[in-house]
Amino acid sequence: AGNKYIRGWSAAASSGEELYSILLTICEKVGDIQNYDFKILGADADISVKMIEQATAGVYNIDKSKDIPDKLLQKYF
C-alpha cells in the first residue's frame, strides 16, 4: 500500500448506508482503492444492536438503491 492512506469516519452510521455512500464517492474520485491503505469507521450514537447487525451484514432492501444512479449500481453492486 505504500504511503497512500485513505481514512473515513461517519459519526451517524446507523445501519451503514452512509458508509457505502462514502465508499462509492471515494472510489469514483480515486479509482482503484486497492493501491491504498483504506479504512472507514462507522459510529452510531443510538447503539442499536439491530442496526449494527444490519450494517455488518451490508444487506439492504432494494428500495434503498432507488436514488443511486444506474451507472453506479451496475459498477459496484
Can you put this structure into words, describing what you see?
- This protein has 77 residues and is of the alpha+beta class.
- It has three helices and two strands; from the N terminus they run E-H-E-H-H.
- It has helices at residues 17-30, 49-57, 70-76, and strands spanning 5-10, 37-42.
- The longest helix is centred in the N-terminal third of the chain and has 14 residues, at 17-30.
**What integer is the average pLDDT?**
83
Could you say which structural class the secondary elements and strand pairing correspond to?
Answer: alpha+beta
Order of helices and strands: EHEHH
Radius of gyration: 14 Å
Separation, N- and C-terminal Cα atoms: 25 Å
Which percent band covers the strand fraction? 15-25%
Strand count, sense and barrel status of the largest sheet are: 2 strands, parallel
The backbone outline, from C-alpha atoms, is flat
Walk me through the topology.
Elements: E1 5-10, H1 17-30, E2 37-42, H2 49-57, H3 70-76
Parallel strand pairs: 1-2
Please sum up the structure shown.
With 77 residues, the chain is α+β, with helices and mostly antiparallel strands.
